[in-house]
């Protein structure tokens, strides 16, 4: 289903010979058939942002995008003027095919940093993808496969509102995942009748509460892109609150799927910090715990090591998150193994067999809370990232 | 040699039955026989600091320490009032043995967080250690062995000044190593005639440029302690600059040895950032690169992955480190594989066989520089930390 679940969108995913994996689908095309072409976008804050990010950020700024072309097999990052020319040439090709201006075409790339793309393959692939465009579930699924890199499965979302308008979406991302954003490309489509301004506001909030609160490995990518496109094909103007809620729900679902497919992960770890003096304080504590390699290793060994949780909490400066270390409690999978900053119930009581691990930290300092997600750190993560060609 | 290299110090290292490893030396005692008992200390900034840190920080504050007792096999961290009482009881025992006040005894512990120590074993071990005290190289070596946990080798330093006064030292630390400080216990001794104030100033600068610039795994400990003790036994008042320089050199040597023994590490990575607008800017960039799990995995796979270097650099906010991403160069082991923010010479030219890997980053934005050290991230690191009992 993916991006074609919303009316007014066609998609394709084809093998264009960009990826080093023979025959892998590596080029996706998503076309907004209207009547609207409203768009919003959120991009990486990495200062070495890739050529396609530079291109797309500029084109999305006016709130109009007619088509998005995405490739795996190469990030086109740190490629200078030549890389930017490749993104532009790709947009020009798609524009000619679908009958629009290059300025209404967004470009997304993911893969190795520092190398130019095989442009001939990209341009020929764009033609193949254009011919394969369809509004079918299969075409949406093909697109979601074509953007995968170290992902082991496609990640999609489909939501239907109370009065018939829809949201569809796809994301790729598995490693180099950290706030802000992640090594991820995400396209969300809707057939609601909405303005670009309304979409940008909804997307900013949704991203802040989803993609910006997951952390696989603390590494921020050069290529992160989240696009939201509206066709208006349902003819329905959504209730504003419901629109915001469903965009947020779509992002949350896709972000959760990224954690579920984190490189080499054997546990998905949900860290909820309550009792904080502010949401920022709760978030800072959650992120500090999520970033602990020692804790992530312990979880991969099925050890609910609360010492590694509190020692990470202890690195957050008091001015960022005021709390009294002797009042902190930590529950892992519902067992309070740390009470008043010291040992609580025996950690042997904790059942670590489920894939999902819940760490609930109560700072007992206020009423604010926040949740972040991370993965455990496994032999397989090291294997993937020691042996993945740069 | 270790701490007994300086005149006026005796030491011992004994097996006291604290460690879960049968027969392992796990208790060290260092006694300052004077005539001076001047002392300085630097401690973890972790808010969950351990009971021995709370005790020792208070006792060192007046600039006098007569003896230090250190144990491996248990951190006595997150152990509340009962843990603090253990540190106090340990200090009282040592004070009675060596004939001083408990307030002149520092206590250091390392090992598992969240459990009380077997106090009877600690107190009996203190007696054994007291009887074994000697000013010999062997006694110093025993002490340096007794503080080891996941360390694979003892780490010591011996320096002699131009006019005969000496510095000796020992450190333990292998994992949970990150600025500020590391999971490390360090005792440095000198027979120079110096004041506590002079020592504190020298130690603060030396720590900032050594232990605070190494990062094995981004995890800050609850127990980090660096102590500097002066006996004055040489009778020599050192040149102030030489004293500062040798303290700094001792800390640098011990910090470098920690990196050389980082948990599971197969490469020691030196990251030098030059051309920064300030030392703080250079340091922020160096630390961002040192913290990248993706880069550390790549290095363990002998891949000089400059994309992962610049994408880490790109996460440092412009207000912290102003630079133009298109002017950045990166050399790995002397080969400029990134030029003007893009691909430079082919990475196949880089010889990755040496254990020591040099990453030289030129921001081309100013004249300041800084160096940080880290280790690569290996299967063995995950193994150690997934299977090490909490």
Distinctive features:
homodimer, alpha+beta, seven-stranded mixed sheet, five-stranded mixed sheet, 10 helices
Coarse structural class of chain A: alpha+beta
How many strands in all of chain A?
Answer: 16
User: What is the helical fraction of chain A, as a range of percent?
Assistant: 25-40%
Biggest interface, residues from each chain: A-B, 65 and 66 residues
Number of domains as seen in the coordinates of chain A: 2
Biggest sheet overview of chain A: 7 strands, mixed
Assigned CATH superfamily of the largest domain in chain A = L-amino peptidase D-ALA esterase/amidase
Question: How far do the termini of chain A sit from each other?
Answer: 32 Å
Widest sheet: strand ordering of chain A: 9-16-11-15-12-13-14
Number of helices of chain A: 10
Q: Which fold name corresponds to the CATH topology of the largest domain in chain A? A: L-amino peptidase D-ALA esterase/amidase
- Give the second-level CATH assignment, the architecture of the largest domain in chain A: 4-Layer Sandwich
String of helices and strands of chain A: EEEHEHEHHEEEHEEHEHHHEEEEEH
pLDDT below 50 for ≥5 consecutive residues: which ranges of chain A?
178-182
* Quaternary state of the chains: homodimer
Give the percentage of residues in beta strands of chain A. Answer: 15-25%
| Global morphology of chain A | globular
Question: Would you kindly provide a brief summary of this structure?
Answer:
Chain A has 390 residues and is α+β, with helices and mostly antiparallel strands. Chain A is 32% helix and 23% strand.
